[in-house]
Every structure is written in structure tokens, then in C-alpha cells.
Amino acid sequence: MDRTVGDAPPLIALREIRKQYGGNIDGAPAVEVLHGITLNIQAGEFVAIVGASGSGKSTLMHLLGCLDRPSSGTYSFSGRDVATLDGDELAWLRREAFGFVFQGYHLIATESARENVEVPAIYAGMPEEARAERAAALLTRLGMADKLDNRPTQLSGGQQQRVSIARALMNGGRIILADEPTGALDSKSGAEVMLLLNELADAGHTIILITHDRDVAEQARRVIEIHDGQIIADSGVSAVKQALPAPDMAQAGRDAGASFWDDLREAARTAWRGMKMNRTRTSLTLLGIVIGVASVIVMLAVGEGAKQRVIDEMGSLGTTIMYLGSGHPSNGGPPGRLTIEDLDAVAALPEIGHVMPIIGDPVTVRYGNVDRQVYAFASSNAMPLVHRWRVAQGRFFTAAEDRDIAPVVVIGHKFKENFFPDGSNPIGKQILIVDAPFEVIGVMAERGADSGSQNYDEMVFIPYQSGRMRVYDARAEPDYTVVEAASEEQVQAAEAEMKKLLIARRGSDDFRIGNAAAKLQAAAQTSNAMKMMLGLIAAVSLVVGGIGVMNVMLMTVRERTREIGIRMATGARQRDIMRQFLTEAVLVSLVGGVIGVVSGLTIGGILLLSKVPVIFSVTAIVGAFACSVATGLIFGYMPAKKAAALDPVVALASE
Ligand code: ADP
Ligand code: MG
What superkingdom does the record give (predicted)? Predict the structure, then answer.
């Protein structure tokens, strides 16, 4: 459709725009910099805004480019009042409509020429390859083909300005806002830049050029003069041969940007580069997290190892065992003799489980022509229960057999190997213990390593009464008696009740109670407390590591405020900035977490080799790792939020 320029609705329409600085809480007096600017610009125009330094040109450009909002007045872009746009829609406009060329170039120092040019397309969601190709093509067109991978510091001023022009064109650059683009350039580079802008104007781009130099302004097709925040001259709307169509305002803020994963990858890549550029700082932060994670893993492993050792020392007897034996009464006198009736009375207490009197000594055992010293363990039928020990073959003797002094024996696993080496079935065979014949009725399961100093596997087990009468010369009293509390919780009560009962029965304290269970429980509690303390220390160091992350991220935000401004000016949304800084924080803690887990396992391994009991827990490893990542998220959030909340102009102005 052909239309005459004068009738077309203006692309940019400013009405009575005013801008004040200061006058808010920071105490600076309010200063009005723009005093009611009214101005129309048509699509495809090449306008120069000229004025002395301090006349408000940059302020005006920031308003035109939606980097800042006016204090009053209206700004309509393509018929839409800009004041009605939200943050995402403004970001969209900066991305899709505007291309900024700044006097100070404003390139991201850590990125190459090509990457700088790519930035606006990242936020527009252009696929990676298309992006790289287009950036290279633009730079080539501007004569920078051999400088694609140079960093800004490796480029001359003119070259940097060309990079920033390429960046302005990356997303189309329908409206190029150039603030003193030649101000920092020598005259030859400046002339080249002006030539470029002229070509772009011919191609239909709308160019708004800001300059203090009248000669530069004369190269534009319309000149607007500004003095002290007011327009004092305007050469009038110029003829436009062709203009790129204005962006479709109905689409404002609608584009979703790149896919979540592309965005994440991009953020991770930027983050990774940031970490590499600041090696010392990164390694110090990492160190904090590594120490945190590794110490959680190692300390919990050492704590668990110590606890397990205590449990091992308990053997298989569990935490309910007490020992009862005779002893001298406290007022002197001969040791008492505990009777079977005393033991029966103890067994009847509700706090008591099993009561198991024991006589045991090495005696001669014979079968066929084998003849050995073997420990004959005479005890009650409760032995397998008390020792939590299984009968592998045959059966254990019964309470009735014990009472009836039955000549039956259950043999240990090793005993069977020693006496029946041909593997024949021992059940039903007669063996001689001292000189008494006993019938083998069962074989205990192999007990192996946890049988302690006495090798239980080599013993034989006979009923208490049979042992007393047939083997141990009618001994009146057990060597000692194992008394089992009914439950772990009742250990203390069981001891007290037993003591009370026996004193009442015997009228004297001529007995001794060894409360192994209470000692073991206390030890287990101590080691549990130690484990918790170690865990706490480790957790504290993890938090300290997290604070380190936050500190570094806050510093990073401060250091990179200008970069944030550049990214926003080229179309980044708040959430893009937020995501980038969060990703950096999480990446640091992720890397720290991995190194921490590896070092934790290594240190634990070294401890193991030096015989320190260490038991790694998968929960602790996974937990420590998860904590480090969570630390990154939590402590990275605040700096990320701070970065995202920055005003584009404010961020750009920072040095
Ligand atoms: P120009 O680009 O024409 O040199 P600017 O638009 O940068 O002028 O500045 C116009 C006036 O506004 C100057 O007097 C400047 O000191 C003032 N000014 C610019 N930015 C701020 C700000 N953020 N706070 C207070 N005053 C400002
Ligand atoms: Mg300026």
C-alpha cells in the first residue's frame, strides 16, 4: 500500500514529555531535565537530535528507547501508549523494535565480538546456529570478518562501534537509537559509521541519531535542535522512500522466548565463562562449598563408624543383658550363694525376660578316636534366644530336658567339623563329655567372626542341670547368670527391681549385678551425640560456604551492573537476568558439590586405610550434595533478585 508520509500515523509520538531527576527519598533536589517535549517521528526517518552537552539528549534517547519512563507526558509507540506496557512488554519492544548504539559502545567485556552481537537474539529465542550465522554475517557486512572472536579490548574504538551497530541490527533493528555514535571515534572511523547509518536509513531503518556536533547532524535528513530540555528548532518531517514495517504491537510480550532448556544452557554457558574469567574468586568460593560438603560426608561417616563400633562391641547380645553373680555383702562377710529359687523369683519379675544360669569350663570331650579339650557351656534352654542364635540342624534342648537332667548336647559348627570331619551326620551320635555319655540332638548355625574372644563355634551346649550333675561335680551355684531385661527401655528398672527382690529374699546384698546393657546404651548414646555434633559442625561449614556464594554473587552483581544494563537494553526480561544469576550461583555450588563429594569419599577412604572406622551413608552424600545445590539457590536468590530489579538506565550508567 502506498501512503504519503504526512498522513501516516507517527511511529513515535511524544506529547509534553517531562523528566525530573532527584526529589525523592535520597534527598537530592528535584531537577527537571526535559521541559515538555512534543515530537513526531515517522517510520523510516533519519533524524538527528543535536544540542550542547547537558541539554538532555541522552535522557530523551533513554525515554525513546523505553530504558526509562518520563515523569509526565505521553509517549505513543505505533499508536500504543508506552505507559500501559508492563516489564515484559517493554523488554519485547527493546528487543524487537529498537537497536541501541551507545557512545561508549557498551559491549560485554567477557564476550567475543560475535557473542556480543548474538545477545539480543538470545533473548528473542533465535536458535543457536541461526544466531551464530546471522551475527557472523552482520559483522562480515560491517567489515569485521576477521575479528569475530576478538574480545572488545582487542578491538579499536571504530571496530567496537561496528560491533555495537551489528548488535543493534541483530533482531532487525527497525529503529536505531544512536547516542553520540561518533563521539569517541577518530574522524575516519566516524565518517564510516555515518556512512553505515545512511545505508541503513536507505534500507528503511528509522535512525535517531544524537549528537552535539552540528556537522554530524547535517548528514541526517531531519535535524531537531534541543536546548536546555526544550526543542528549539525542527527541520520538519522528511520524505521517506521506504520504511520497514513497525512491529505488531498486538504481539507485544507474547513471544515465549527460547525454550526453557535453551535458556538454561545459555545461562549455564555464560555462568561457566564467568567462573573461568574469575578463577581465583571462583576457587575460593568453591573451596567453601567443597569443605562444607566434604566435611558433612566425612564427619557423618566417622560418627557412624564410631557408633557402629560400639554396636559391634555389644556383640550379638543386644542391649538388654545384665550379669548376676554372687559377691561379698557390703558389710563384709562371706559371699552369698544364689539359689535356683532366687533365679526363678527373678525370672518372675515383669521387667525381666529370660534368666539363664551358666556353668562353663574346658573339659575333655571324646568321640570315636578324637579327643579334645572343649568348652562345655551348661545353660538353660533360653540360650538361643538370649544369644539370638539359630540352630542349624536338629533342635535345641527343652526346659523339660533341663529339669530332667537329660544327657543331650547341641554342638557348635566348628565342633562338628573337628569331630565329624568326614561330614557324617552327628545327630543321634553319642559323645563323651568328661566321662558322661551325651546324645547329639542339634548343631548350632555358624557364628563366625562375631563369636568374640571365646570361639562359640567350637563349644558344646548342654542343659544346665545335666552340666551341673553330670559334668561339673554337682556344683551348687552357676558361674554367673545372664539376666535379660524384658525390653531395652526397662533395663534400668529391671536392675532396680532385681536388686530389691534379691535383698528382700536374702536379707543381704551378697550378690553383684553387672549391667552391661546400661553401659552399652550409654556408649551408644554418647556416640550418637558425637555423630550429631559432627553433623552439626559440618552443616555449619556448609552454611558458611553458602554465605560465601552469596557474597561472591553480590560482588558479581555489583561488578557486572553495566552488563546487566546492556542485556536489558538489548531486550532481556527481568526473569532472564534472574535466571542467569541464579544459574551462576547454582553452577558454582553444583561444581563445589561434586568436588566436595569426591574429596569427602577420598578423605574417608584414606581414613579407612589408616584403620579409622568409617561408614559412608548414601543419605549423607546425597543430602550434602542436595544441600550445596539448595545453598546455591537460596543464597543466589537475593543477588539474582537484586540484579533483575535494576533499572536499565541506572544499570547502564554504572561503571
Ligand atoms: P546530554 O546527553 O545532552 O549531554 P543528559 O541527558 O545526559 O544530557 O543530561 C541532561 C541533564 O540531566 C544534565 O544536566 C545531567 O546532569 C542531568 N542528569 C542526567 N542523568 C541524571 C540522573 N540520573 N540524575 C540526575 N541528573 C541527571
Ligand atoms: Mg549524552
Answer: Bacteria
pLDDT tens digits, one per residue of 223-276 = 999 999 999 999 887 777 788 887 777 777 666 555 677 778 878 887 887 778
| Entry pTM | 0.66
Chain centroid to CA 280: 22
What distance in Å separates the CA atoms of residue 118 and residue 116, rounded to the nearest whole number? 5
Assess contact for 39 and 237: CB atoms under 8 A.
Answer: no
Please give the average per-residue pLDDT across 643-650, as a whole number. 84
Nearest partner of 386 among 298, 278, 310, 480, judged by Cα? 480
Q: Are residues 540 and 599 in the same domain?
A: yes
Give the pLDDT confidence score for residue 283 in this predicted structure: 84
| Rounded Cα gap, residues 123 and 127, in angstroms | 10
Q: Which of 18, 24, 57, 59 to mutate to test the pocket of ligand 1 (most atoms within 8 A of CB)?
A: 59
User: What's the rounded Cα separation, in Å, for the pair 526 and 474?
Assistant: 44
Quick one: which atom of ligand 1 is closest to the CA of 28? Answer: 25
Phi, psi of 58 (to 5 degrees): -65, -40
Domain that holds residue 132: 101-173
CA distance 270 to 224: 41
Q: Cell 532487525 identifies what position? A: 172
The amino acid at 189: S
Residues 277 and 245 placed together within one structural domain of the fold: no
Measured in angstroms, how far is the CA atom of residue 65 from the centroid of ligand 2? 14
> By percentage, how much of the chain surpasses pLDDT 90?
36
Q: Are residues 90 and 196 in the same domain?
A: yes
Nearest to 623 by CA among 583, 582, 593, 599: 593
Of residues 279 and 72, the one with the higher pLDDT is 72
428 compared with 624, residue with greater pLDDT = 428
613 bridge partner residues: none
Q: Are residues 190 and 331 in the same domain?
A: no
Q: Work out the angle between the directed axes of helices 516-559 and 574-609 (0-180°, nearest 10).
A: 140
Cell 526543542, residue located? 231
Does residue 305 lie in a domain region? Answer: no
